[in-house]
Amino acid sequence: MNPYPRPLRLVTIGVYGFSEAAFFDALRTTGVDTFCDIRWRRGVRGAEYAFANRARLQARLAEFGIRYLHYRELAPPPELRRRQTEADKTEHTAKRKRLALSDAFIAAYRQELLSQLDSRRFVDGLGAEARVVALFCVEREPGACHRSLLAERLQNDLGAVIELVHLTPGQPAA
């Protein structure tokens, strides 16, 4: 595929491990203007992450002038998430401590969701004003979340003009 005609910076971010202040500071510091929520259910368990529940998240992003978009079609459906849960149990790994996705999950996500993705259409659909786009789910580590698979696919399809940064707790925002 030919490189995408305009520069675009993709950042990925999860919520686990971030305080509310640090989460929004990371988004603002990196200049995020478009926030893509790629969760199936737009809620997070635990009072410390209530800020990432849909209504609160959308309101706070609006305060910072960051557009919120939801792409449920890019979220792993329940059956696919169950496969990862089974792999986590086999590995004796808690979801919030997971460092990497299972090979079976990766293969299934790529086949079931990413094989349907038209990367250029996805980015065009973000609008011409999108310059720094966040891909959001919940896991702390990018490699433990489907957001890294989506980001990788977009970067591979659209060329070097797509800069990719993974934001994690405790890391200075770039």
Name the structural class.
alpha/beta
Strand order of the largest sheet: 3-2-4-1-5
What's the β-strand tally?
5
Please tell me the overall pLDDT: 90
What string, H for helix and E for strand, traces the elements in order?
A: EHEHEHHHEHE
Give the biggest sheet: 5 strands, parallel
Structure description:
With 174 residues, this protein is of the alpha/beta class. The chain has one domain (8-167). It has six helices and five strands; from the N terminus they run βαβαβαααβαβ. The chain has helices spanning 20-29, 54-63, 78-91, 103-112, 119-125, 146-158; strands at 8-13, 34-37, 67-70, 132-136, 162-167. Strands 3-2-4-1-5 form a five-stranded parallel beta sheet, with helices on both faces. The chain is globular, with a radius of gyration of 15 Å. The model has no long low-confidence stretch (mean pLDDT 90).
In short:
Helices cover 37% and strands 14% of the residues.
List the helices and strands and how they pair.
Elements: E1 8-13, H1 20-29, E2 34-37, H2 54-63, E3 67-70, H3 78-91, H4 103-112, H5 119-125, E4 132-136, H6 146-158, E5 162-167
Parallel strand pairs: 1-4, 1-5, 2-3, 2-4
Helix pairs in contact: 3-4
